[in-house]
Amino acid sequence: MRTREYSHPALTEFAAIAGAFCDAVANVDHRTPEAQLDLLHRLLPRAYSAALQLPDASVSFEDHDSPAERDAGATHTETGPPQGLDQLASFLGVRRFYREVFDPYAESSDGEVTGDIIDDFGDIYWDLQRGLVQWHSGMAGEALWEWRFNFQIHWGEHATSALRAMFALSAWNDVPWPTGAG
Question: What is the residue range of 96's domain?
Fold first, then answer.
């Protein structure tokens, strides 16, 4: 597979936000769980918004390469949330779980499912981190593909679910609203 050399101003902005989100998940030595949740609450909507500004991922690949060909060699060995979420999971306890309707346009008989905000943060982290590895290796087209494609098929769902859960935690479950600082 060959990627075209590719640059776009939205990539640089997204890389910075993705890096800040991944840092907020993984590096908690100097943060309380409350401060970590506050930071994630502020960064996640920024990541979602910045992902909407990314160009279509297909622009970075040669015409004969398809996303399916690109993905055929990919291996995803990450499982479970990063260790940086352990203290947040302990802090939230059972509040980490929430009710959700996966597809609001599905038949009402489909009912609700249980979400897990720690799982949401972990899945977003792994999808963004894979793109950051590509980005830091100078492979902007690969990073774009990781970020945009996975936003559309995976981490975007986790982001919107986590945003709704964080809102409910602050609005009705005694978790402070973000301070706006940071």
Answer: 9-60+82-172
